[in-house]
Known about the structure:
The chain is mainly beta. The chain has one helix at residues 2-22; strands spanning 52-69, 72-84, 94-97, 101-104, 110-121, 124-136, 146-154, 167-181. The radius of gyration is 16 Å and the shape is globular.
Amino acid sequence: MKxxxxxxxxxxxxxxxxxxxxxxxxxxxxxxxxxxRTGVDAxxxxxxxxxxxxxGVFSAEGVQTYTCTDGAWKLLEPAATLWAKNDRxxxxxxxxxxxxxxxxxxxxxxxxxAAVASSPKDGTIPELLLQSTATRGTGIFADVSYIQRLDxxxxxxxxxxxxxxxxxxxxxxxxxxxxxxxx
Length: 183
């Protein structure tokens, strides 16, 4: 029952986030991620280890969904749509959800990751360095080793008390950078 409820929540959150942006993509159209710039501005604590190369830079918009746990808001899941940083059409190239996981809407590849470092920012969710725990497929997320969540805006849990099983979603945006082992 809990798994079914989580799947419904994730599906509902992703549908809410992508409803506006998915309408703009024409059937059969695929967004092709463009090669990323060679470097990104990141706090020293979020530096990707040597031996990895930047392979993608994506803008993201979505929500951080919080649930009430013992009278306080606790992160339940993110739900966001990613598109190539310089793509003015904003055609979705990936969906981000609980895991955390990123799944390509272009080729079905996916990457799961776990946070290994955090850099707090005033008034917004922290920037993160995440390390891949699993990948699947042969597309844009194949062999991803590290992910950075940078340039965060919004997404902070409410500071007010909560009761019962209340839930709330708070809009956020960020830039996600993806790295693969250098060859």
